[in-house]
Each structure stands twice: as structure tokens, then as C-alpha cells.
Design goal:
33% of the residues lie in helices and 14% in strands. It is of the alpha/beta class. α4 links the parallel β5 and β6. It is elongated. It has one domain: Rossmann fold (3-Layer(aba) Sandwich). The chain contains 6 helices and 6 strands; from the N terminus they run αβαβββαβαβαα. Strands 1-2-5-6 form a 4-stranded parallel beta sheet. Strands 3-4 form a two-stranded antiparallel ribbon.
């Protein structure tokens, strides 16, 4: 029984103005990055030319290792690999695996280096939601990293988690 004064939801009115985007970029990879993950993982994908985006799951607020790796005749770091990827038009997003992890690339030196190399922060998205939202952002805003960043930071359906800074 419906209480007096309470109206039933109108299913038609609830969805008016709702836009359903169904385009998602298929060529997006995810890589868990630790201190011992070699940057050739990303560099090989860049050289193959098959990806349009990559999600790097890093620790903390977006820290990424910056030590150079000797790989055959070459020597490069994760920052070098990010720079090569973004120069090739590949969107590089950084996400934190922690429950209340908000990626703020400017917070620490290593995150700032990743940002300077062209990476974007994936805010407080979970890795699974970052995968979905980055795929959609690339499909909608291909070639416009600033628009992709704005889209990522826009809370559409409650996907952005409250982080420590938000709990004040």
C-alpha cells in the first residue's frame, strides 16, 4: 500500500533526457605496475601500434617507478615509455588499486613526472570502472586529452569514490 502523499515514480519521466552512449574503444590494455615491472611492457605495446589507451595501475596517488632499465641495447624508464605512448597518440591513464585511492599526479614527484610525460589521472575510479570509463572517454573524445580528463573527473552515476580529502 502506498502511503498518503507519496507519488508513484513515472518510469517515462525518469528516463527523459537520459543519453546512453554505446561506443567504447576496444583497444585498451591494463597493466599492474610495481617497482619490478619493466617498462618494455608498455613500450612493446606502443611499438606494435595496436592500442589506443592503457591503464597503469600504480601505487598511492599515482606514483610510478622512474629508474632506467637496460633492455638489450636500449635504456629507458616508465616515464620514457609513457612519453613514447602519448607521443604516439595513446591515452595513458593512471589509477590506484586502493579502495579510497584518489590519483593526484601533482602530489608527489613521480606522479608529476608521469603527468609531464602526458599521463592523465583517473581520479578515484576503481580499476574496473576506470577500464569502462576510459574506453568510453577515448571513443567520445579521441585526440583530445583535456576533454578525456574532464570526462574522467565528471561524476556521472556515482562512480567517483569519496577519497580521504572528501571526508572532511
Amino acid at each position: 500500500m502506498i502511503k498518503p502523499g507519496v507519488r508513484k515514480r513515472d518510469g517515462v519521466l525518469d528516463v527523459q533526457g537520459l543519453r546512453l552512449d554505446t561506443e567504447f574503444e576496444q583497444h585498451v590494455a591494463s597493466v599492474v605496475v610495481s617497482a619490478d615491472t619493466p617498462p618494455y611492457v608498455l613500450m612493446d605495446m606502443v611499438r606494435a601500434g595496436r592500442i589506443k589507451g592503457v591503464i597503469l595501475e600504480c601505487k598511492g596517488a599515482g606514483n610510478i617507478p622512474d629508474r632506467p632499465w637496460q633492455i638489450g641495447e636500449e635504456s629507458y624508464s616508465w616515464i620514457d615509455a609513457i612519453q613514447a605512448a602519448t607521443a604516439a597518440g595513446i591515452v595513458v591513464g593512471i589509477v590506484s588499486p586502493f579502495e579510497d585511492g584518489r590519483v593526484i599526479l601533482d602530489r608527489y614527484e613521480l606522479g608529476a613526472k608521469a603527468k609531464a610525460a602526458g599521463a592523465i589521472g583517473l581520479a578515484s575510479l576503481t580499476p574496473a570502472m576506470a577500464d569502462v570509463k576510459l574506453r568510453q572517454a577515448i571513443a567520445m573524445h579521441r585526440g583530445h586529452p583535456d576533454r578525456i580528463q574532464r570526462f574522467i573527473e565528471t561524476n556521472l552515476v556515482g562512480e567517483l569514490l569519496d577519497g580521504y580529502e572528501d571526508a572532511a
